[in-house]
Design goal:
Blueprint (H helix, E strand, L loop, with lengths): L2 H19 L4 H5 L5 H8 L7 H10 L4 H11 L9 H9 L3 H18 L2 H17 L7 H12 L6 H10 L5 H13 L8 H20 L3 H13 L7 H17 L5 H14 L3 H18 L1
Helix pairs in contact: 1-5, 7-8, 10-12, 11-12, 12-13, 12-14, 13-14, 14-15, 15-16
Amino acid sequence: MKSGNVEKVLYGEAFKLFRTSKKFTLKEAAGNDTSSANISKFENGISSPSVETFFNIINNINVSAFEFQNLYNQMLNSKDIMLYESELIAAYMSNDKDKVCQFIEKLKMLSLTFESKKYKLDKVQAEAVLAKIDREYKIPEEDILFLKTYLLELEDWGIYDINALTRSDHIFDPVTLSKLTQQMLKANYFNKKLPEIRRAKIQALLNIVNAFVRNKQWELAEKYISYLENMNIEDYYTFEKNILKYNKANYRFHRGDDTALVIMEKCRDVFEYCDCNSYALLMSKEIKELKRVRR
């Protein structure tokens, strides 16, 4: 079966999974936008609805475009390796260098085979993760430049692009990172009202603050801490609010306020209480190192 036919079948299968799991009939899914017969043909890969009809019928079964794309991506995961993002994150959290190297090799092969810009971007991000695990690993300069150029030329930043900066902030020098951060914040956002976009931006800025503290760029660190505070992060973003409090205390400690360690420990305790053990462990290691350096 040709690739296009496979994708058409998967679209229909994804729609059927949603429709049947939500107990909508073919007639209810069709609504006033199409016929039950056309819905059946779509679900069986025989035909596809127009773009307008597609958005109407997923709305008829109470499914957002974001939810549909996510399920479709899961069904198509053999094609898009970065859909294994959770595995990549897990490999980082467990310091599994071999697993990350496997990602890099596979992405390298795919980028060469298909001459794909996306796979090359994915590869650079995987290399950035490896550089966090293995301090001696050096990302090729041409790969850093490739990602930098891509991000600087963006007019609209989506979730993929924001996450790319989040994963790779440590590979850029402070001047470049500041420029990319400004580019991200001033960009046009076609989907700026999406909660996922807002959350991705918050997470990116939290990482960027840490990067500036690490590089002793105090003014930039303070600038983006203030920016985050002015975003009035919602209470239901508890994880992000706790990280912000931790990062702010980390900044204060590096600026000479030893009492800030108490706040950092309380933030770690919150994660331990919530069974976020991987993050709590990373914080414990950082706090231990800060205490050692202060002695």
